DNA sequence: GAGCACTGC
């Protein structure tokens, strides 16, 4: 936990060290220090950001800060005790004392301490809450029995499809490659990188010559040397190498037939035949980013290219060798041979296989094990099977495996089901939001980490599991972080539960430390060699460079589609135009170039175009945002152009220190913790301040979340979960939303509120607004405007869509994004189920917009703003100046009082999704939070009367 | 008068 004291100290020092100071920089440096395992390491990290010249001052500062943090951590550790009580929330009085104090000062309805009545009410509520929780548990028991087969066929097919298109490994490989390419690009930007590297090595040798080096440091130095020598060789080779690259062909020269000196391999007899076979095998299996071991082809087919016309300067070039290189490349097998390879053979060929026995032994010996292994080592698919084969699932016990992404959970489960030879959903299943493909037979269960978190609600001790694998732990989502704290705790009182934390190389030490120095099991080796090229990417005009690269590839390289990563819609549209224009100019002299854009807000029918097979003789270019990085797979892509730029506007990014922003400061600061707090409280964790987070969120963020939950009525004045809070926890939405949903019971409009919630949760992706049809799109949007505000407009959209029987065509005609609507429907369906679960009836009251708006107010009274002057608003609690977003239906109306759904800071502080309310409602729905005095209008003029019916 | 992208429940 970053203490205020240290932060202030850093801010102070910064003036001296870099001549300026800023809170965010201070926060950033502190978090950097926290993540470093020595002050030297910390200094290196500072250096890596490329923003500070490392001089004496900086060095001294770094060492002081690191030591401060170290001391702080020590103190923290000794203070921490596991205070948590594990039974279903007891009504004991152990609770957060801090927020309580704050609350009683500021917000308690009566300033006096607990009256008798209050105490009675509290106890009654707790009783009701526990009774409710028990009912839920009973319900869950019944339900798990008939989960089987529900929707599993559809899910099975879907997963199969996904599997064919994509394997998990390639999904994670591409982002890894991109990440490392970006990281290195940033690290190495500068004038002469080679020189710097040389100096670096010299420095290392000088600085650490006397120290005992760790394995990694040795590796690191060796790596640097390899890079240097390769790069030097490359330089020497100079033009000779360049010739092998793209160039603009002369008119009469056929680029593809350019003569190349035959290699030894080529001179061996039968080469052409082999080459032909290879080509055809590859045609069959070539897919974008297919880095997986199963498809057997080498990685070299993908070039990461960014270059200017004929000036390609590699900053560094190296091959990360694969441990299996000495074996014949399986790629060279004939198709018939390939088929012979049974699933078992494939399993045995994975890098993890030789370690099977050792691994099982280690798992047997240790309760918690950190598993470190490269992507592609087979850990995700194999370890659960090893455990299964070793009998860990005897007696209907389960092995749980978490994945950070839905598709990963699905496709890996499908893969493993296939390997074991069972139907997906039977012994092997997966569980993700909107889709539960498991049955009572399921013993290996893949799921998203968020799903496991939800599972805690109904099974707080995870009694059904003998082993839990947290895969891709290095991705560190908020969910996994919480999961770590929970499982670490569970492991203490369930010694039979095995805990495996699987991670790529970087962070295993940190995981080990967190899990009380758990041993690390390393799986060495990489299945296939991977080539990485870093280019000295020009910072300016990189868009142009991309376009040039595309054309170069098109003109000079063999068939195969191109994928270009760009940062946003605007750039995609620009390059689309340029490419089409240039291709047109070249006319019939070149093969057809099909340019297709893809970004998240593009309607799905247009998105689908990128999956259509490329016609013979043509080449497809896909211009994509990061969307393609993780969530889709395109056949036929052979060339990937990645300029290494990543737009990352963080909440804090307004400091002008852009290079610092490359590392986001903390996900937690941008996330609403309320949800998490509610979940933890529901799990009986009362003392959140001392919850064992791997990286604790800022203290204030936690306290704020607690305060907000109190105001919403989810916690009582002792910080205990109320019945309302327990019910709210069931909903996978932010607390204000779940409060709004629960409040709809009282106003008899739960149907409407659910629709609104669903629509709000697909935020800002409802209306489609293509650049070339702005006017039409805006008109279409305005046609949906409904008196009262944006929530009602969204409701209107949903209802109209529902009336057309959820028609795609209708969406198309009305500039509505069908994909978002489908998601809204999924969300809504889920919410309907949950509403039933928390014992609330579905009721509809669509005409009474006052009721609907009151329900909204009951959840969002925090977000009240009052008209001030000059078209601007002031938030009631913080007197912050805000504006209505220009897209809002109330942009011109400017009602006196309104509730906003969220604040976004772009060019100004905007309220997005606003709804008109009356100030009196605030007293009705949140009397404990608002005093009548705060809500005085300050004007003699009365508000237009709209009570009972909305205008219009 | 606006406008980076993506993941998860």
Automatic annotation (TrEMBL):
Entry's Gene Ontology cellular component terms: catalytic step 2 spliceosome
Assigned keywords, A-Z: ATP-binding, Helicase, Hydrolase, mRNA processing, mRNA splicing, Nucleotide-binding
Record-level GO BP terms: mRNA processing; RNA splicing
Catalytic reactions on record: ATP + H2O = ADP + phosphate + H(+)
GO molecular function: ATP binding; hydrolase activity; RNA binding; RNA helicase activity
SUPFAM superfamilies found in the cross-reference section: P-loop containing nucleoside triphosphate hydrolases
Residue ranges occupied by any Helicase C-terminal domain in the UniProt entry: 549-710
Feature: compositional bias, Basic and acidic residues: 120-158, 255-273, 323-340
Record SMART domains: DEXDc (SM00487), HA2 (SM00847), HELICc (SM00490)
Designated name of the protein: RNA helicase
Species the sequence originates in: Holothuria leucospilota (Black long sea cucumber)
């Amino acid at each position: 936990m970053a203490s205020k004291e240290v932060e202030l100290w850093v801010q102070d020092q910064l003036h001296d060290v870099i001549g300026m100071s800023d809170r965010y920089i201070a926060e950033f440096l502190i978090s950097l220090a926290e993540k470093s395992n020595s002050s030297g390491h910390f200094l290196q990290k500072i250096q890596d950001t490329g923003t500070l010249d490392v001089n004496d001052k900086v060095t001294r500062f770094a060492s002081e800060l690191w030591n401060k943090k170290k001391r702080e951590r020590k103190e923290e550790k000794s203070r921490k005790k596991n205070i948590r009580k594990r039974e279903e929330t007891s009504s004991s009085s152990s609770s957060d004392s801090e927020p309580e104090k704050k609350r009683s000062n500021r917000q308690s309805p009566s300033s006096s301490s607990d009256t008798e009545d209050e105490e009675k009410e509290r106890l009654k509520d707790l009783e009701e809450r526990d009774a409710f929780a028990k009912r839920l548990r009973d319900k869950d028991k019944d339900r798990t029995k008939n989960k089987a087969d529900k929707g599993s066929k559809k899910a099975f097919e879907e997963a199969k499809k996904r599997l064919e298109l994509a394997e998990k490994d390639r999904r994670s490989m591409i982002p890894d490659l991109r990440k490392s390419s970006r990281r290195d690009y940033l690290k190495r930007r500068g004038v002469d990188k080679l020189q710097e590297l040389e100096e670096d090595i010299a420095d290392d040798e000088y600085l650490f010559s006397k120290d005992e080096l760790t394995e990694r440091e040795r590796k690191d130095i060796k790596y640097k040397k390899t890079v240097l020598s390769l790069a030097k060789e490359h330089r020497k080779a100079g033009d000779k190498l360049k010739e092998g690259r793209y160039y603009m062909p002369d008119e009469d020269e056929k680029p593809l037939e350019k003569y190349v000196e035959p290699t030894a391999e080529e001179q061996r007899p039968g080469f052409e035949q082999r080459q032909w076979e290879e080509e055809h095998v590859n045609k069959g299996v070539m897919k974008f980013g297919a880095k997986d071991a199963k498809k057997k082809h080498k990685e070299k087919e993908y070039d990461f290219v960014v270059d200017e016309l004929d000036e390609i300067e590699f900053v560094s070039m190296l091959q990360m060798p694969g441990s299996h290189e000495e074996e014949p490349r399986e790629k060279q097998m004939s198709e018939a041979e390939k088929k012979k390879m049974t699933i078992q053979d494939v399993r045995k060929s994975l890098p993890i296989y030789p370690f099977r026995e050792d691994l099982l032994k280690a798992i047997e010996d240790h309760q918690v094990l950190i598993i470190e292994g490269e992507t592609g080592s087979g850990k995700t698919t194999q370890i659960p099977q090893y455990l299964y084969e070793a009998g860990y699932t005897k007696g209907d016990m389960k092995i749980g495996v978490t994945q950070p992404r839905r598709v990963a959970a699905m496709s890996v489960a499908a893969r493993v089901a296939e390997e074991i030879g069972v139907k997906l959903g039977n012994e092997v299943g997966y569980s993700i939001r909107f889709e539960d493909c498991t049955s009572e037979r399921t013993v290996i269960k893949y799921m998203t980490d968020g799903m496991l978190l939800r599972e805690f609600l109904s099974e707080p001790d995870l009694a059904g599991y003998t082993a839990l694998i947290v895969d891709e732990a290095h991705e560190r989502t908020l969910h996994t972080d919480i999961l770590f704290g929970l499982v670490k705790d569970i492991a203490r009182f369930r010694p039979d539960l095995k805990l495996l934390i699987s991670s790529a190389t970087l962070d295993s030490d940190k995981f080990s430390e967190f899990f009380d120095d758990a041993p690390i099991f390393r799986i060495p080796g990489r299945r296939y060699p991977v080539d990485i090229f870093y280019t000295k990417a020009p910072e300016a005009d990189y868009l142009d460079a991309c376009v040039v690269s595309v054309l170069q590839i098109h003109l000079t390289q063999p068939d195969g589609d191109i994928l270009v990563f760009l940062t946003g819609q605007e750039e995609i549209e620009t390059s689309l135009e340029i490419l089409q224009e240039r291709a047109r100019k070249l006319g019939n002299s070149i093969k057809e170039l099909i340019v297709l854009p893809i970004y998240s807000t593009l309607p799905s029918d247009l998105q689908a175009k990128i999956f259509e097979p490329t016609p013979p003789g043509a080449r497809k270019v896909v211009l994509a945002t990061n969307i393609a990085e993780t969530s889709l797979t395109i056949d036929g892509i052979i060339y990937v152009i990645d300029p290494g730029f990543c737009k990352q506007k963080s909440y804090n990014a307004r400091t002008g220190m852009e290079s610092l922003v490359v590392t986001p400061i903390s996900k937690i600061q941008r996330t609403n913790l309320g949800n998490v707090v509610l979940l933890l409280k529901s799990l009986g964790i009362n003392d959140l301040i001392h919850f064992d987070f791997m990286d604790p969120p800022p203290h204030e963020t936690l306290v704020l979340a607690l305060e907000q939950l109190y105001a919403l009525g989810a916690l009582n004045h002792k910080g205990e979960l109320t019945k309302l809070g327990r019910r709210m926890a069931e909903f996978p939405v932010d607390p204000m939303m779940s409060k709004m949903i629960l409040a709809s019971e009282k106003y008899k409009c739960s149907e409407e509120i659910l629709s609104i919630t669903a629509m709000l949760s697909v935020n800002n992706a409802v209306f489609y607004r293509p650049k070339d049809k702005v006017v039409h799109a805006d008109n279409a949007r305005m046609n949906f405007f409904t008196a009262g505000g944006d929530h009602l407009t969204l409701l209107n959209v949903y209802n109209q869509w529902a009336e057309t029987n959820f028609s795609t065509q209708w969406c198309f005609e009305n500039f509505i994004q069908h994909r978002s609507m489908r998601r809204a429907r999924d969300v809504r369906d889920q919410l309907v189920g949950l509403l039933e679960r928390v014992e609330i009836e579905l009721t509809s009251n669509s005409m009474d917009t006052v009721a609907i708006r009151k329900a909204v107010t009951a959840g969002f009274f925090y977000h009240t703003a009052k008209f001030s002057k000059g078209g601007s608003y002031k938030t009631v609690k913080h007197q912050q100046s805000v504006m209505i977003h220009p897209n809002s239906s109330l942009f011109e109306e400017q009602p006196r009082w309104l509730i906003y759904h969220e604040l976004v800071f772009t060019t100004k502080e905007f309220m997005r999704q606003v709804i008109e309310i009356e100030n009196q409602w605030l007293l009705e729905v949140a009397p404990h939070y608002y005093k009548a005095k705060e809500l005085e209008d300050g004007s003699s003029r009365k508000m237009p009367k709209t009570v009972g019916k909305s205008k219009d």
